[in-house]
Write a structure and sequence with these properties.
0% strand; 6 helices; mainly alpha; elongated; single chain
Length: 177
């Protein structure tokens, strides 16, 4: 049962919906429905209250996607090289990839990139196997990175141009003459 019917939509909510609409438009223009998912998720995660926070989240989101794509693709290549030992490769390499993702994100002070780097790594490592997986994975990684970048750019553009955040000074902090 809904208790509070006085819930108001904030500007970030409205901007997120506008940005997702732009992601859908991009998807229609390029003829790739996956673009809605990859760019839309990036938009929703990156859209923050301020432009600076949106940019920071966008950089982390993009960096995590690139890192996860590279590590996941490396795991697929290892699988292809050792087809008779895939379970052993999974047992050793996937946890090491997770450890490496966390370490690298920490090294570059990109803690917000950790989750997406691991998610992309796991997606690739578990979905694409064998020699066919190597061939199918590279276009997937490229699309994922490209449409994540599109979503990040849309989030930044929308946050900057549609109802941009303006810090309001309170009466107690402003000086009067």
């Amino acid at each position: 049962m809904i208790q509070n019917l006085n819930v108001k939509l904030g500007l970030r909510t409205v901007k997120s919906a506008i940005a997702v609409a732009l992601c859908v438009l991009v998807s229609i223009l390029v003829g790739n429905r996956d673009a809605i998912f990859f760019s839309g998720v990036a938009v929703v995660i990156c859209m923050q209250q301020t432009q600076r926070e949106t940019l920071r989240m966008g950089v982390c989101r993009f960096a995590g996607t690139v890192l996860g794509g590279a590590m996941g693709y490396a795991l697929i290549r290892i699988h292809a090289l050792l087809p008779n030992f895939q379970s052993a490769v999974d047992l050793a390499a996937i946890p090491l990839a997770v450890l490496l993702a966390i370490y690298l994100c920490g090294l570059f002070r990109a803690d917000d990139a950790v989750a997406i780097a691991i998610i992309v790594t796991l997606k690739l490592a578990t979905e694409f196997t064998g020699s066919a997986g190597v061939e199918a994975a590279l276009p997937y990684v490229f699309d994922r990175v490209l449409y994540t970048l599109v979503g990040v750019l849309i989030a930044i553009a929308v946050n900057r141009t549609i109802f941009p955040y303006r810090k309001v000074e309170s009466a107690s902090t402003s000086s009067s003459i």
